[in-house]
Design goal:
Layout lengths: L1 H36 L13 H58 L3 H33 L5 E5 H11 L1 H6 L3 E6 L4 E5 H18 E12 L2 E10 L25 H14 L3 E7 L2 E8 L12
Parallel strand pairs: 2-4
Antiparallel strand pairs: 1-3, 4-5, 5-7, 6-7
Helix pairs in contact: 2-3, 3-7, 4-6, 6-7
Length: 303
Amino acid sequence: MNIVIFLTISCLILISILGLILHDISRITKDLNYINENDTNGKVTTSTTLLVIKKLAQACNFNLEKKQQLKENQEIQNKQFNQMLTNLTHDIKTPLTVSIGYVQLLNQNSTGKNQQDLTRVQDNLNSVNYYLHYLMDFNLIREKSKNLNITQFNLSDVLQRELFNYYDQLNAKKINAQIEIAPKIIVNSDEMLFKRIFQNLLGNILKYATTDMRVMLNNDGGIIKLSFENQTAEKINDGTQLLNRFYTADNSRTNRSIGLGLSIVQSLVTTLGGKIKLETNHNKFVVKLTFKHLQTKKASTIV
């Protein structure tokens, strides 16, 4: 009889201990799930006196501290890399811009072989400048992916100013521009990223358009819609490849990568929460952008 009572009491004690262990494990699991799902420096807590559970909690906290330290080190390295990349691109951009200006000036007063040599130098400098801008955009996307500078601004005015900046170059190439911009489309977003989107797309038109181009901007029930359309000299055979950053229309290095510019645009648009769609039809090339959730004010007419 005494043995039965002893065994019963022992079983109750073991069950109680097991219940406490399961409760503490469940609590630790809950803490870990919360820490993993949220950006926090929290740690696992336990009120048990059981040594095995205390050691488990200490081991979990040790790993969490290591993970947090690695994350902090990674963020520091990313900031240093971004700063280095920013300094590098700016250090290259200034002398490059001066060099392009000098070569253009010399080219105006040159003839024969000297002019041909200077033209080749100018083409090479323009190529460096082309890729330098995309390197700057790449760095901009890295910086903006976590910290957008959200302000309220007039998107219609921003697009009009960028078009005006390209007016002389488009006019020199005798490109007929049809512009349809709804006035006073006010949005809450990152103005710098929108400027880079417009600059990339207009630069793409300047390089590849032949005679006609069309730019449209409107607000359709709170959805911002943009369209950049141009005619190209050559037929576009594979429109699905144009967002591939390594895609080029031919095997010539001098033609540069069409996909590089459009992949940058795609990254910028995605960073702003928008979508990009490409349409090709023989020599017609259209880039369509849509943006939602920009807290826009709808415009009434198109000018």
